[in-house]
Amino acid sequence: MVKRTSHKSASCPVARPLDAIGDWWSLLIIRDAFDGLRRFGEFQKSLGLAKNILSARLRNLVEHGIFETVPAADGSAYQEYVLTAKGRGLFPLLVALRQWGEDWFFDPAEPHVQLVDRERGEPVRRLELRSQDGRLLDATDTIVRHG
Prior knowledge:
Low-confidence stretches: none
Distance between the termini: 35 Å
CATH class of the largest domain: Mainly Alpha
Mean pLDDT: 94
Helix content: 25-40%
CATH topology of the largest domain: Arc Repressor Mutant, subunit A
Radius of gyration: 18 Å
Number of strands: 2
């Protein structure tokens, strides 16, 4: 297997986190954690992922501070994987990816899972990027400042 390049010293805030979340399995594990999964077996059943790969991805996510392991809530000998504040901070990224996927990977009438407001049961409003003064921005309205 080819060794992945590390981006830990990159000056780009898009590249640097890829060491932690740069493969699809890691993002799907994090997605499942937001859906309430906490145990190795739950992740394995949901994803159908080989145990060695799941173990490696979970270990990496713990090492990067996205998950922490805690004793099982039911008092059993198992451990559970719980999102840290850093991990919970990925929620807007997953919502953005979800909304992009809805726009580009589903036919308009094709059914798919939907993110809804728990209290009202209504679909979540689209994410928007806004300037400091509240203007709606797109890619042509921004630049990356170096240094």
